[in-house]
Write a structure and sequence with these properties.
By secondary structure, the protein is mainly alpha-helical. It is built from twelve helices and two strands, in the order ααββαααααααααα. This is BRO1 domain-containing protein.
């Protein structure tokens, strides 16, 4: 089911040597710099491969963030706050929607923010990888659900805790633009909720529960799409088309199951209108899916309209609608309303929230003495020639392909959970 999800590319970054030369005045300080360089390289390697396991990612992330601690936070009790080393190194990162020209800042918080952004993207890609198996187990379905909630939590942490601390305001359309971050938060939360809907359908929960969950999920995807409306259409057209597909398919599901609820309550005329509305949303989603494949722009090549979860719904809607029309003609003789019934539904089960991200504890290498051993007065002066030499575009990240299957799930609903 990997092709059910749109995924934007990872951010690229220039190497960081953490060569502070004379500023790292003893072996303890030099070891911190050496370990940080190695931890950064290891983390970037893991992030580039969504087929790696969560435990490996967690360990490498924890190692890097814990080693960054003294470069961001002061360990001097007489001078708390930001570290004296915070602006000692230049970092260069691209933005996923803006091509290969990097943004640069002398700021360890900038590096941590961008690295965490990539980690959140990794969780979404890993979730797509696990979901792309032919028959994911229940434990694997739970992993997909958890990964998407973790991703939403990391994006939330970046938006609420890190962006305001940056030296420079984020560029419009950059990854740290509040609109981009808000879009990711809503999208990841909605995609996690998709797993809940799949479970509810497969276990044949009541139509009212499925309808309410689908309605709430469509609203989350709408929130994500609304965040992108004011951005340059050239960079977000593909992403927005995917979100609009999800909006329309979940409104189609919501109206379909709501139609079943109305029919069971002998409101056949309203049921017909609800199912007609479902059919219209289904057609809109199909058009979105077809358009997506021809829109140019960043991101993976999803094929959501080809997935069984989508293809199964159309015939179900038409069969239920035909049944309602027949029964209305023979039994109920109710007038079909002009306006669609209101989906003023509030799900009481299965709603998803981001999982809160908590930074790891500082590395034990960071002691007050170790912090004191860095002498910023001995940092080499900025060299314009070196900076010019190291400027320019960065090559995109060589991401490992997600291993997935194109086979249909062997269950009734077309969902990934059996």
């Amino acid at each position: 089911m990997a092709h059910w999800f749109h995924r934007n590319p990872l951010k690229a970054t220039a190497p960081a040597t953490f060569d502070l030369r004379g500023a790292a005045s003893n072996s303890q300080a030099q070891k911190i710099c050496s370990d940080l360089r190695g931890a950064r390289g290891n983390l970037l390697e893991v992030i580039s491969n969504p087929n790696r396991d969560v435990e490996t990612l967690t360990k490498t992330l924890s190692s890097y963030i814990s080693l960054q601690h003294g470069f961001i936070n002061s360990l001097d009790e007489t001078n708390p706050g930001d570290s004296k080393l915070r602006h000692a190194v230049r970092f260069r990162w691209t933005n996923t929607l803006l091509g290969n020209t990097p943004t640069e800042q002398y700021d360890f918080i900038f590096d941590q923010t961008c690295m965490l952004f990539n980690v959140a993207l990794w969780y979404t890609k890993h979730a797509a990888k696990v979901a792309g198996k032919e028959e994911p187990s229940m434990d694997e379905a739970k992993e997909v659900h958890k990964c998407l909630r973790i991703a939403a939590g990391i994006f939330t942490y970046i938006k609420e805790n890190l962006v305001a601390r940056l030296m420079d305001s984020p560029e419009k359309g950059s990854d740290l633009d509040s609109r981009i971050l808000a879009a990711y938060i809503s999208q990841c939360t909605a995609e996690a909720q998709e797993i809940t809907i799949a479970r509810a359908i497969e276990l044949k929960h009541s139509a009212s529960i499925v309808s309410a969950l689908a309605y709430e999920t469509a609203r989350l995807f709408t929130q994500s799409d609304d965040c992108l409306k004011t951005l340059d259409e050239k960079i977000v057209a593909r992403w927005r088309n995917y979100l609009q597909f999800k909006i329309n398919i979940y409104y189609a599901y919501a109206y379909n199951y709501h139609g079943e609820v109305l029919l069971a309550a002998d409101k056949c005329g309203e049921a017909i209108k609800s199912l007609q509305e479902s059919d219209q949303y289904y057609e809109k989603a199909w058009k979105n899916g077809k358009e997506y494949t021809s829109i140019k722009g960043p991101g993976s090549n999803a094929k959501p309209h080809e997935h069984l979860f989508f293809r199964k719904l159309g015939p179900i809607v038409k069969r239920t609608l035909d049944k309602c029309v027949r029964e209305n003609g023979f039994i109920y003789h109710q007038k079909v309303p002009v306006d669609a019934p209101q989906l003023e539904l509030k799900a009481t089960y299965g709603l998803v929230a981001p999982e809160e991200f908590t930074p790891p504890e500082p590395s034990p290498l960071w002691t007050a003495e170790a912090y004191k051993s860095f002498d910023i007065s001995r940092l080499p002066p900025l060299d314009p020639k070196t900076e010019q030499k190291e400027s320019g575009s960065l090559p995109p990240v060589k991401e490992k392909e997600i291993n997935s299957t194109n086979k249909d799930p062997k269950n009734n609903s077309g969902c990934i959970i059996s």
